[in-house]
Automatic annotation (TrEMBL):
One of its GO terms (biological process) is protein N-linked glycosylation. Belongs to the glycosyltransferase 32 family. This is Alpha 1,6-mannosyltransferase. Pfam families: Gly_transf_sug. InterPro entries: GlycoTrfase_DXD_sugar-bd_CS (IPR007577), Nucleotide-diphossugar_trans (IPR029044), Och1-like (IPR039367). It comes from the Eukaryota. GO terms for molecular function: alpha-1,6-mannosyltransferase activity. It comes from [Emmonsia] crescens. One of its GO terms (cellular component) is mannan polymerase complex.
Length: 315
């Protein structure tokens, strides 16, 4: 009798263990489906050889073709993708299904420039590569030479200063958002995306909006602050501060004469992405020799198609 009881108890324990294992397995599967997290760190992957663009209602004009072709002709191993409104919507739904807040906000944003800003961060977060505005042309330095050899292993995000040299010390040192390079999964771009969602929710509360689709351009204030270069800059500095456990801000990235790596973010001097917006007359190296700016990597042609009351290109 005692032996029979012991066997029954043993069977019950085996059954309980099987039930617990099954529940854990189902729970793990559901969690993986709802919120997949990559098993790799971003730095274990190369920078994808892909250039992203977002088309407006006018499509590809002769000038846009000229500018975008310059990047592909000088980087023949790269591919490019032109997203339309419809394909961008589908992309976000497909790649961010595990973040319904991102999908809802993106699909509901009624202002084209806010949507385009958010899209660039989402594309690079999901797949990495290069984001270029349509009015950006590439200069002679191949994209894979943008990151100096000594920084290639440790760099996950590449940004370039828009305003730096030749400006007052109190100018906000913002990153250009017309060209950004990233490996997939950048924690810094995730912070930028989350901060934009917080800003949209704050605006909705402030103006008693029932839906993101009711948001108007005037409610957002300055686009540069809301989703553009300053949002990008503040988000990256905020994320770096959290990553490194110390304050990182514009003081860490000012008056740059050569690329600077902070954490896993490579910050390029103003001449790299914004030569025309920076002044180097009379600038010298610390040893007193004259400074000659390094090669300009891209040229931004300032088409400014979004600078109107509509906040986007008009057909």
């Amino acid at each position: 009798m005692f032996l029979r009881k012991q066997l029954s108890l043993f069977k019950l324990r085996i059954l309980a263990a099987l039930i617990i294992s099954t529940v854990c397995l189902v729970s793990y599967h559901n969690e993986a489906v709802l919120a997949p997290t990559p098993s790799w760190s971003p730095s274990s992957l190369p920078f994808p050889k892909k250039i992203w663009y977002k088309l407006g209602p006018r499509g590809i004009t002769p000038k846009i073709r000229e500018w975008t072709d310059s990047c592909l002709s000088k980087n023949p191993t790269f591919t490019r993708e032109f997203l339309t409104d419809a394909s961008a919507d589908q992309y976000v739904k497909t790649h961010f299904y595990h973040r319904p807040d991102i999908v809802e906000t993106y699909l509901s944003l009624p202002i084209p420039i806010l949507k385009a800003d958010l899209l660039r961060y989402l594309l690079l977060l999901a797949e990495g590569g290069i984001w270029n505005d349509l009015d950006v042309s590439c200069e002679d330095t191949p994209i894979y030479d943008w990151v100096p050899e000594q920084f290639k292993h440790d760099t996950n995000l590449v940004v370039g200063l828009e305003f730096d040299m030749g400006w007052r010390d109190d100018i906000f040192r913002q990153f250009a958002s017309w060209t950004i390079m990233a490996r997939p999964g950048s924690r810094h771009l995730q912070t930028v995306v989350d901060d934009i969602l917080d800003a949209v929710n704050t605006t909705k509360e402030k103006h008693n909006l029932k839906s993101t689709s009711e948001l108007q351009l005037g409610m957002a204030g300055d686009v540069v602050d809301y989703t553009g270069p300053r949002r990008l800059t503040r988000g990256v500095f905020k994320s770096l501060s959290e990553q490194l456990g110390e304050m990182v801000d514009g003081r860490n990235a000012s008056n740059l004469l050569s690329p600077k790596l902070i954490g896993d973010v490579l910050i390029l001097p103003g001449y790299a992405f914004a030569l025309s917006a920076n002044g180097y007359n009379g600038v010298k190296w610390p040893n007193g020799t004259d400074f000659v700016p390094g090669p300009s990597l891209v040229t931004h042609h300032y088409a400014g198609s979004w600078k109107n009351a509509y906040g986007g290109e008009v057909p």
